[in-house]
Design brief:
five-stranded parallel beta sheet; binds iron/sulfur cluster; single chain; 19 helices; alpha/beta; binds flavin-adenine dinucleotide
Length: 478
């Protein structure tokens, strides 16, 4: 360990964000990565605690004590190589991961954790700048052909891993661009789309084929796909949004968050979206749902010129600090104030929208009630309406950001009669194989809506299983 007393000498620091007044005028990335000197200092804070709970907290098991130390010593190329052992795309997680690792950092038990995410981003961006990130072209091809359905982080990780051991991989994507929710969910101000293009460019050079505008089960027969490929990996995501079927749901001006964000992402990319245009200028916008998707809707609505943005969450306001329900080293589910929240949103907790009110078929207001959470006889949380708490709020546009229920069943899932789990996700065994021999599944399509880092974990794990299934053994790490 280079700097044994670094954690005593230096304070936690994260990169500054662009000033609010400036950034809300555009969709450029908010976060500016830290200069090398500051990354080194954060690396020096890692205290060689002995048991790296950070690696345990990270779904892909990144080796933070190693790369923190290398960064501290200025050995950035070595740090990049160590990071690449466990992560295919640190440039995605370095931008959008909630940093599960930092929630488990030993320093965080009674102080501020190491800024691991900043170090990760600093290492990978330096690696790109210095041209250390090169196509990893396999020397020998196995002759096995694999179809990956879906090009989100799970599909991309699966493809990168399977290609690295010499299989011929084709990724199919129903949209016009590669990236899944990285492309058409997460806004540019969190993840600039050039970051995805930069990586796809490398993957193409590695030999991976990408076929866009190809909806498997519709544009390409599902059973034919099984005949054309030695193995198929389904990474189609969790794509059916949870609805709010209350009175007035059919009024105009009520959108699913994911449709809205896809429209904005296309608009920002310069595509012709005139037919699906959504005008937010001067409007009172209500975002229903207090999670990350809801937060992305806030930042986007503000950039689109909304007058007021409300965010209603049915669950209680989380505590500011860890409490007994989330002891270290568990990830602290504390109150999160995102950059979008900082830009201006009226946030309410314990509030349930019960009616959409409209005139001439268009939404003009909503009705909501306050709720409180008690425990039922079996100790489960139970929602109780607060008497006389009904409010009416003038609203011109609603974005439903209440998560996703499961993947689309129409198409390949029904065509192959795949077994589902009790939540409607694609069932797969411990080797990620579905109920059909040779067909595997990973990512949100299998585990339900989750995080980019979990999608990458699933992509690495499924690739290991597929390689073993096809070759009888595998050198992939999973
Ligand atoms: C708005 C929003 C913001 C988010 N922000 C964050 C964040 O900040 N940090 C974080 O960690 N996570 C975030 N998430 C969650 C994260 O994006 C997902 O967990 C992750 O993208 C799942 O990856 P995936 O590859 O399993 O699926 P997806 O990214 O959903 O990709 C699935 C792809 O499969 C394609 N597909 C589906 N069916 C077919 C078919 N039949 N044929 C061809 N293609 C098909 C879809 O079009 C899609 O492109 C966010 C999610 C949303 C909705
Ligand atoms: S992927 Fe996420 S949890 Fe893992 S090291 Fe990076 S920021 Fe931390």
């Amino acid at each position: 360990m280079g700097k044994t007393t670094g954690f005593k000498e230096y304070k936690r620091e994260v990169a500054t964000d662009r000033p609010i007044k400036e950034r809300i005028k555009d969709y450029k990335e908010i976060h500016i990565s830290m200069p090398d000197e500051k990354i080194k200092i954060q690396g020096a804070r890692c205290m060689d605690c002995g048991i790296p709970f950070c690696s345990w907290g990270c779904s892909i098991g990144n080796l933070m004590p190693d790369f923190n130390d290398m960064a501290y010593k200025g050995e950035f190329e070595k740090a990049y190589k160590r990071l690449s052992l466990t992560s295919n795309f640190p440039e995605f997680t370095g931008r959008v991961c909630p940093a599960l690792c930092e929630g488990s950092c030993t320093l965080g038990a009674n102080s501020e954790p190491v800024s691991i995410k900043e170090v990760e981003l600093g290492i990978i961006e330096k690696a790109f700048k210095e041209n250390w990130v090169k196509p990893n072209i396999p020397k020998v091809r196995t002759g096995k052909n694999i179809a990956v359905v879906g090009s989100g982080p799970s599909g991309l990780t699966t493809a990168a891993e399977l290609n690295s051991v010499g299989h011929n991989v084709t990724v199919f994507e129903r949209h016009d661009k590669i990236g899944g929710l990285l492309r058409y969910g997460i806004p540019d101000f969190k993840l600039d789309k050039s970051v995805i293009d930069r990586r796809i460019n490398i993957m193409e050079k590695e030999g991976i084929k990408f076929k866009v505008n190809t909806n498997i089960g519709f544009d390409y027969d599902s059973n034919q796909l099984l005949k054309d490929f030695d193995s198929v990996v389904l990474c189609g995501g969790s794509t059916v949004p949870r609805d709010l079927p209350i009175e007035g749901r059919n009024l105009k001006g009520i959108y699913f968050a994911v449709d809205f964000l896809r429209y904005i992402n296309k608009k920002v990319a310069g595509k012709d979206v005139s037919k699906e245009a959504i005008d937010l200028k001067g409007k009172n916008v209500l975002v229903i749902g207090g999670g990350d998707t809801g937060s992305d809707c806030i930042g986007t609505s503000i950039r689109e010129g909304a007058e007021n943005v409300y965010q209603y969450e049915i669950m209680p306001k989380p505590p500011i600090k860890r409490d007994e329900t989330m002891p270290w080293p568990l990830f602290p589910r504390t109150l999160k104030t995102t950059t979008s929240h900082e830009e201006g949103a009226i946030r309410e907790w314990c509030i349930e929208t019960i009616k959409f009110i409209g005139e001439d078929d268009k939404i003009t207001a909503i009705e909501a009630v306050k709720v409180k959470w008690e425990k039922d006889d079996s100790g489960r949380p139970m929602k109780v309406e607060v008497p006389k708490s009904k409010i009416t709020q003038k609203i011109d546009l609603v974005l439903i950001a209440m998560g996703f229920v499961h993947p689309d069943h129409k198409g390949i899932v029904e065509d192959l009669n795949l077994k589902l789990d009790n939540r409607g996700n694609v069932f797969a065994d411990k080797n990620y194989m579905t109920s059909v021999e040779g067909v595997f599944s990973a990512g949100d399509m299998r585990r339900g809506q989750s995080l980019v880092v979990w999608a990458m974990n699933e992509g690495r794990s499924v690739a290991k299983s597929v390689d073993k299934y096809l070759m009888g053994e595998t050198s992939l790490r999973g």
